[in-house]
Structure to design on (193 residues):
């Protein structure tokens, strides 16, 4: 019998290195067009020092079987604005948007950096489980989770909608790519906790 897939926070170097391996294997440039359209893809790369710094504010959620990382969920706060160039434009844009009558920039929110599941573990709703774990870990500190999804990544858009994200905005980045900005209110459904 195969060991179960468990969720935890990545705190060990071997786990962070496996996140980077999984990321490289699923970059848009690394997968064929059919896989990209049916299974999704990731668009950003990170390095080990950056992942370690990200883990100081929001440790990555991982889905792990024994010692093998089968999925990850990377998040960060606004302090990474200068470390991840794509975030500078994104944070400035989203901070100026109104959500539920309030400027998003006046709220505490977590920026979802990337979510990915290994091919052999797909179809088990691991993104849903990882997102729920992320929310359980960080909902007291952050009101919202916000992310931008490449508009071509229809699988990712469906997953985010299923989990509870709502569309907040659409925009085109300087490189001509179209993005959908989505937001998940972590306080919704938490009454009584």
């Amino acid at each position: 019998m195969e060991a179960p897939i468990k969720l935890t926070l990545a705190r060990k170097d071997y786990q962070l290195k496996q996140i980077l391996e999984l990321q490289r294997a699923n970059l848009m440039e690394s997968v064929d067009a059919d896989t990209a359209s049916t299974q999704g893809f990731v668009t950003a790369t990170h390095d080990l020092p950056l992942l370690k710094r990200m883990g100081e504010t929001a440790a990555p959620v991982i889905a792990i079987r024994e010692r093998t990382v089968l999925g990850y969920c990377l998040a960060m706060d606004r302090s990474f604005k200068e470390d991840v160039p794509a975030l500078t434009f994104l944070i400035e844009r989203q901070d100026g948007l109104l959500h539920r009558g309030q400027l998003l920039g006046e709220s505490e929110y977590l920026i979802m950096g990337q979510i990915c599941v290994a091919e052999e573990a797909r179809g088990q709703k691991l993104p849903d489980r990882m997102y729920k774990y992320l929310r359980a870990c960080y909902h007291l500190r952050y009101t919202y989770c916000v992310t931008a999804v490449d508009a071509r990544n229809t699988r990712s858009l469906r997953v985010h909608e299923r989990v509870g994200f709502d569309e907040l905005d659409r925009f085109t980045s300087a490189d001509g790519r179209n993005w959908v900005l989505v937001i998940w209110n972590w306080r919704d459904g938490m009454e009584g906790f």
Summary: The chain has a mean pLDDT of 89. The CA atoms of residues 167 and 182 lie 4 Å apart.
